[in-house]
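ok, trying the design again with the full structure, not the truncated one.
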């Protein structure tokens, strides 16, 4: 078989998707590609890896040819909060990089390109509860704008060039292996780290800010299952809502407190991330994904919390206790 390239392999999703793909397709057949960030040691030890800047067409084209790539999981992206700090970078990576990936795929007979979209593709005018798959999309962040562009350009390349581009709209993803730091939903991961390390978390989102979320094993399953879905059954392609559960910071704190009774939370709001969160859906309708390719999450909120605390406690055991997190609102000046 031709090999699989995963861009953004050092990121939150990539670092967990690569090992699963290697289990399914064989270590040698999955190439982990990072840029600027060092890849996790286990990815470099267990199979091929490389460095690629997706904003550079020729570098990407060379890597695809050298590594005999037949399928791409394109995960590299500048997320919502970092994208507001540096919109030019978000444009170059998320829009320029995406165009390069699709053009290189088209020119190299790539059989399939999988690209996650996000709830960021919605905006303040979108219905917030049970947000339909097909609805108003007027995002106000550079990340969100790039995700709408990605969904539309992917569909365009499918219709015009017969390139099999597919994608899901992810809610916030919760995971323990790689701590995310560039998004708006990251509090839902940081709260677990801080609960274990310090017994306290200062939330940058208001207590009642409800957002849709998903545990990482379901996110990985969604990407793999969509890739395997029968093309003839797909009415959508690049823009499937996928949902698992929704909660607010205060509800998540209650769930953690049921397991760690000493845990406390307080709130110091970051206006930029709060505005982003306020513009996103509170829950998603994922019936299109359920009907067209059988999507169904395995993890609920309570199971996720149990697993996060267990896995993170093991990961952090024996490490020096960090100082309590210092509050630093993101700023629009530089990165
Ligand atoms: C972010 O918060 O930017 C991401 C996302 C929802 O796409 N986690």
């Amino acid at each position: 078989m031709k090999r699989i390239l995963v861009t953004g392999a050092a990121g939150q999703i990539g670092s967990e998707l690569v090992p699963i793909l290697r289990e399914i397709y064989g270590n040698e057949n999955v190439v982990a590609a990072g840029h600027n960030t060092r890849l996790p040691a286990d990815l470099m030890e267990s199979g091929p890896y490389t460095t690629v800047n997706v904003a550079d067409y020729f570098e990407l084209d060379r890597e695809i040819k050298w590594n005999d790539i037949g399928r791409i999981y394109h995960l590299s992206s500048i997320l919502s909060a970092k994208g507001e700090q540096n919109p030019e970078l978000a444009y170059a990576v998320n829009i320029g990089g995406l165009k390069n990936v699709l053009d290189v795929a088209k020119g190299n007979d790539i059989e399939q390109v999988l690209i996650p979209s996000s709830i960021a593709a919605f905006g303040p005018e979108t219905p917030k509860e049970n947000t339909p798959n097909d609805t108003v999309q007027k995002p106000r962040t550079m990340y969100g704008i790039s995700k709408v562009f990605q969904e539309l350009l992917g569909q365009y390349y499918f219709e015009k060039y017969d390139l099999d581009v597919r994608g899901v709209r992810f809610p916030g993803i919760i995971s323990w292996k790689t701590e995310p730091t560039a998004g708006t939903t990251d509090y839902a991961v940081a709260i677990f780290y801080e609960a274990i390390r310090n017994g306290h978390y200062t939330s940058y989102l208001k207590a009642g800010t409800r957002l849709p979320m998903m545990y990482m094993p379901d996110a990985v399953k969604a990407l793999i299952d969509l890739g395997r879905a029968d093309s003839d059954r797909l009415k959508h392609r690049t823009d499937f809502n996928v949902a698992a559960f929704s909660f607010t910071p205060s509800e998540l704190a209650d769930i953690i407190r049921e397991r760690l009774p000493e845990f406390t939370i307080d709130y110091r709001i970051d206006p930029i991330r709060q505005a982003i969160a306020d513009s996103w859906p509170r829950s998603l309708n994922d019936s299109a994904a359920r009907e067209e390719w059988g999507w169904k999450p395995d993890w609920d909120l309570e199971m996720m919390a149990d697993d996060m605390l267990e896995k993170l406690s093991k990961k952090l055991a024996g490490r020096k206790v960090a100082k309590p997190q210092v509050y630093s609102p993101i700023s629009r000046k530089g990165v």
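Keeping the full-length input from now on. Residues 79-80, 118-120, 143, 170, 172, 183-185 surround 2-amino-3-ketobutyric acid (CB under 6 Å).
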